[in-house]
Amino acid sequence: MGDKSYLNRKNIIDILLTLQRKNPISRAEIARLSNLTPATVSRVVTELLKRKILRERGPGVSIGGRRPVLIEFNPEAFYLAGIDLGITKVTGVIIDLHGNILSKAKLDIDVSEGKDRIIEWMLTVTKKALSSTSRLIRSKLTGIGVSLSGIIDTNKGLSVFSPSIPNWHNVPIVQLFQNEFHLPVFIENDARAMALAEARYGAGRNYDNFFCINIGHGIGSGIIINKELYRGKTSTAGEFGHMTLVPSGPLCHCGNRGCVEVMAGGHAITASAIRVASSGGNTLIKELVEGDIKKINAEVVALAAKKGDDIALRLLNEVGRYLGIAIANIINLLNPELIVIGGGVSNAGEFFFEEIKNVIKKRAFTTMVNNPEIVTSALGDDASSIGAAALVLSEIISTKGLLNV
Ligand SMILES: [Zn+2]
Fold first, then answer.
1. Cystine design at 145: which of 190, 212, 343, 391 (Cβ 3.0–4.6 Å)?
2. CA distances (Å), 23 to each of 54, 206, 224, 238, in order?
């Protein structure tokens, strides 16, 4: 293990991982964050500049003396693909090393059509995203990241189980993509992929430790510690949606009662709104769907609330209160610098966030010393697919190195 090539490889990995945490960055700061000597940093950076993996950028801010030259990823060194499987659509993106989207493809789907169709759609979207880029970009594609809901086995490359997709068990996603594209393929849970995207390119860019919640039909989350995803022993960390809020609450599809997801997810909002509308409640929600109760969903409720409908406001306030309680617990547990909220329900409007913030202020014990900012996702609908692509770079650096270094 002490031989020179191993050390060189390890130094390169350490420096590239540091660049992932901060990009652009000075040589001195790389040395400080990576615990390598300035001489080693200088030697390895020179090598990576020569290989065009990194590039120099104009002087940074002076801390006394000459302003340092900053080092950053050469955005055109490699390209990354990310595919996200949602319940109603598949999204695919090709990004450069700065997180810019160069190509995007989207397909509306219906997961009830079964496993084979879903896989076909995922491969089709990947091909579409690839075919609308140049041949040069395709030749520099380093790998493909895939994100989807549910339990993932990152080591075996399996989607073990997804509660939102019928008959979906142990699907060998990595193998299926590798057979088709002959590239390295990695897999991650969609909420954790979203957190990674926010850490690299979004709302969490300037933070080391934060908590990112995805509130869509279901509720997931990703924990970022020291700029990296915290996965836990078997890659299931972050199941915020299945923390118990109300012990005798409604049954959740996970088998437990009163989970955060069943009290505050998109499905919960829809179910409550349908209940009120069908029991003759006087609400704008019914007018917005022209009396067709089947068309009620969380977006409709949010729209009615924005127009000042009392019942919609009350429903979303209740959801905000439950989320506030759950987030207060997270703040007490993790002491994060920031909370990022993404997913469809996060578009519900300012009043919704106000309710969450009020509850946190009342309930979190530690807010007297730490009242973290609560912000919406900076990457919106594309967060999970960008995160899946970002995953490729992290995995390639830490497991294989770049360019067989
Ligand atoms: Zn549950």
1. 391
2. 10, 10, 17, 26
